[in-house]
Structures are given as structure tokens and as C-alpha cells.
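Co-fold these.
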Amino acid sequence: MNKLPTKLTNNIKVLRTKLNLTQEDLAIKTLCTRQTINAIEKNKYSPSLLLAYKIAYILETSIEQVFGKE
Amino acid sequence: MNITLKKSIFTCSIFGIMFFYLMTHFIIVGPNDFQTVRIHMLISIIIIFLGFVSFAVMLLLTKKKSNIFDERDELIQKKSSTVGLMLTGMFVFVFSMILYVYYSDKGSLEVAWVWLIAYSTFSFAYFITSLISVYLYVKDE
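Predicted complex below.
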């Protein structure tokens, strides 16, 4: 049986760079602060499921593509 | 720096100054002089008044509908309130116990101490809660 993930990683920086979005742009579109996006990117804050879905939607991908296990 | 962090820094500064001023002033002057020499009480009341006015002005100036208060802000506020409440409780307990031990032989204590406990608890609660908020925001930056 596979081990349960203990930590999540994310590809937000890569995905938003592809779409030419800054942290500020993504924050405005997801109705949160730039600091929150920055904290999520650095894996210092785990977003709620709703915010994770919003980020994935803005980045035009699925939630699994944005967040993954370490 | 988002608006919530700015507000926390400002609140921390206002109530930090108020708290440390009240404590040092009272301890230097002493409970007897603080109660009998009116100027000491008057200066403290002015400082407290100015503190509250600046706090109210800050709240009014930062009140905008465009300000974003997101889920991380909410989480930080919850954490800082919980820890702040616990530390305030500890502060009151330790402060009261020190007074109890110090004055237990005398059997009574000057009533000015009660004034200090009231105002210092209030300012300490705001100071410590906002200080924890600032710490949590800076830690994640």
C-alpha cells in the first residue's frame, strides 16, 4: 500500500508564468491577497479546497495538476 | 504588506506604548503617590485617551470596502486571538499572584493596583494579540 502523503507541493508559479500572470493578478482573480498566493507558492500555507479550486480554474487546469504530493 | 498586517503593526505599537508606559509609570511612582498625586493619574488618562483616539482614527482610515480579508487573514486572526487570550489570562494570573504574595502579610493592598490591573489587562490583550498576528504574517512572508 502506498504511503499517505505528508506534505503537498504545487506548481502555481510555473503555471501562472505560462499564462503571464503575476502573483497580484492571480490574487485579484481569486479574491485573496498577494501575500496568500506567495505563502501558498512557498508551501507555507495550505489553501482551503475552495481556494484551491479557484486557483486551478484561473490557471486553466485541474486541481491535481496544480497541487501534488511530495 | 497587506492592510491587515499594517493594522496589526499599528495596533501593536499603540497598545504596546500604552501598556509599557502604564506599567513603568505606575511602578516608578508607586501606588500611594499614583492615587494621591492627581497629576500622575491625569497623565495616564491622557495617554490612554490619545491611544484610543489614534486606534479609532486608524480603524476609520483603514475601513474600505476594497480591502481584502481572505481565509489566511481569518486563520491568523483566529490563531492570534486564541494565543492572545491565553497569554492575557496568564498575565492577569501572574500579576494578581505577585500582588497577593507581596501584600499577603499586610492583609490589604492599595486600590490603585486594581486600576492598573484593569488598564494593563486591556492594553496587554490588544498588544499581545496584534504582536502575535504580526509574527504570524512575517513568518509566512
